[in-house]
Design a protein that fits this description.
about 160 residues, mainly alpha, 434 Repressor (Amino-terminal Domain), 2 domains, about 60% helix
Length: about 160
């Protein structure tokens, strides 16, 4: 039988913050899936539950995506601008935000600006980097690095 580890300070902090049991369960499942790269059988084993129970909990707790942040691998066939656009598109989809809604939240009148950014045809204006970061959960340094790579690529072409 496995020993039960109790962390009273963490539990008290969770209770004081008003976290409910189902919120903690949901976060624990998400963390396990992230740690084991979405391998549900391994995550279920580590959580000490059957795989079918994990599947039921994923459905019940409405866990849509398991990866916390999209990782865009460097691919010589993709330009830096397209990698940045793909990163934004994946983060937007993960948050279940439509292009039209994102355009509105960023202050654009239409969807075309978001489409151009996601397809790598337009760079994110510096004035909205903070908004993009907070809406999509992409850290500002990651966005800044991606924008820098696009600018460096432009310099090489010119």
């Amino acid at each position: 039988m496995q020993s039960q580890v109790r962390i009273p300070e963490l539990m008290i902090e969770c209770i004081e913050q008003g976290l409910k049991l189902h919120d903690l369960e949901r976060e624990l499942i998400i963390v396990a899936l992230e740690k084991y790269q979405d391998k549900r059988s391994v995550a279920a084993n580590k959580l000490g539950i059957p795989v079918y129970t994990l599947y039921k909990k994923i459905k019940k707790l409405q866990i849509k995506k398991f990866n916390s942040f999209p990782v865009i691998k460097k691919d010589v066939s993709l330009s830096a601008a397209k990698r940045l656009g793909l990163m934004i598109a994946q983060a937007r989809k993960k948050k279940e935000i439509g292009q039209k809604e994102l355009a509105y939240l960023l202050g654009y009148k239409g969807v075309s600006s978001v489409c151009h950014i996601e397809y790598g045809r337009r760079l994110i204006p510096i004035r909205i980097v903070n908004r993009v970061s907070s809406l999509l959960g992409i850290p500002i340094p990651v966005l800044n690095q991606a924008i820098y790579e696009v600018e460096m690529e432009k310099d090489k072409i010119a």
